[in-house]
Amino acid sequence: MSSNHHDRPSHSRQDEHEFGEERESLWRIAFAPTIWAFHFAISYAAVSVYCFKFEPVASMGVLRAGLIAMTLAMLAAIAWIGWRAYLRWDVRGTGEFSNPEGSAEDRHQFLGHAGFLLAVVSFIGVVYDTLPLIVLGTCR
Amino acid sequence: MTRDPRAPRSLPPGLSRLLLASPLLLAACEGRQSVLVDGGADARILNDLFVVMLIGAVVLWFGMNGLFYWATRRSPAPHSQKLANWLVILGGIAFPTVTLGALLVYGLTIMPDLRATGDGPVIRVTGEQWWWRVEYERDDGSTVTTANEIRLPAGVRSTFLLDSKKVIHSFWVPSLGGKMDMFPGRVNEMTLGPERPGIYRGQCAEFCGESHAWMAFEAEVMEPDAFAAWLDAEAADAAAPQGEAARRGAALFLAQGCGACHAVRGTPAVGRVGPISPMSLAPFARRRAAGHLYGGFRQVGRQPRRVEARRRDARL
């Protein structure tokens, strides 16, 4: 009982250390979907405002080029986040696709795995969001 | 009992009869209100979209069931981790991404054609409860108002300004194009480019009350010259009733106060609540979709039987 009591502070410190490391990864897995959300909101808002207010007076060219440039920058950012998450997952090194154990290393790799998949979904989402801008290029 | 294995196996008689009769079901694909019988470019584009999606769905159905058959009957042993991984990556990520991307691009490429600017007449259609107010804008700025019947010139794109009085309706002529909702307080614009003259049927496609099912109309596509002549004739006052029954009908119409809600151009009947007929009330009596009139009456507490009995006696 007393030994357990003595062990607890050391476990807590260890957990605190490990979770402290993962706290950053936990934030990171949300980065790619957040970029996707911003891309969606900015694209739709900008095109809606343009079509409602400025279509008769200005061509869509500048807005279109600007949004495509923003898309490329966001895709690059998502690709970078996805690559970092892929390295954290370390599937090539360990050969493990799923990380079912509760160890710190498994948590680390699992968050890399989740972050990678979310980056893939976000990348596809951003590409789909942009297709109307590329294919249509008009308010109609 | 032995049976020659080379002899062709015959189907049970019931199933044979069912299979023989099944082409009759295709008869439902014809008709004035079918998306599969296109009367213009818009409906043809939507028809093509339907066929592409149908073929894709059939191919996918066979593909998935083929995989299922292969995995359960042909190769039921556990697959290697590598094969399973590639199956997930290719079948679960790459294939849907590419297929949905291709469908999205296809859908986007047909949108500008469906939403092209109109170069024909501008027609304001308002969803009432439960009928259609139809107003044609003429070149001189005047409008011609009719009800429950829309006429369109073939070969040009007509513009529809869709509005609604109280509840949400939806404007749809399946043989001419897609549908669009009509909201109170908001004008939605759509264009249709009919090509083949004929009479098509439109139907409210958004449940709008008890008489929703009656809220139908006829869309007649005419040659442009015939359309112009018809519109000129519609702009004129109503023709005087011809014959004893018609005269009695007109007198009854005015005497019973029908003009408080309905209008007949050139007569004291100038109401705007109910359907309007600028020529005479004859179109109401002969219209096949007249049922909505009785439905509407039922909704506002009128007596459809009385109207029906009068219609028998006097030609409206």
TrEMBL record, chain A:
User: What residue intervals traverse the membrane?
Assistant: 29-50, 62-83, 110-136
| Keyword list, A-Z | Membrane, Transmembrane, Transmembrane helix
* Protein name as annotated: Transmembrane protein
Per the UniProt entry, what species is this protein from, by scientific name? Limimaricola cinnabarinus LL-001
Automatic annotation (TrEMBL), chain B:
Which Gene3D superfamilies is this protein grouped with?
Cupredoxins - blue copper proteins
Q: Which domain of life is it from?
A: Bacteria
What's one GO MF term for it?
A: cytochrome-c oxidase activity
Q: Which UniProt keywords apply?
A: Copper, Electron transport, Heme, Iron, Membrane, Metal-binding, Transmembrane, Transmembrane helix, Transport
Give all residue intervals belonging to the Cytochrome oxidase subunit II copper A binding domain.
Answer: 118-233
One cellular component term (GO) for this entry is: membrane
Q: Does the keyword Metal-binding apply?
A: yes
> Its Gene Ontology biological processes?
ATP synthesis coupled electron transport
* InterPro entries the record matches: CcO_II, CcO_II-like_C, Copper_CuA, Cupredoxin, CuRO_CcO_Caa3_II, Cyt_c-like_dom
Protein name (database record): Cytochrome c oxidase polypeptide II
Species for this entry:
Limimaricola cinnabarinus LL-001
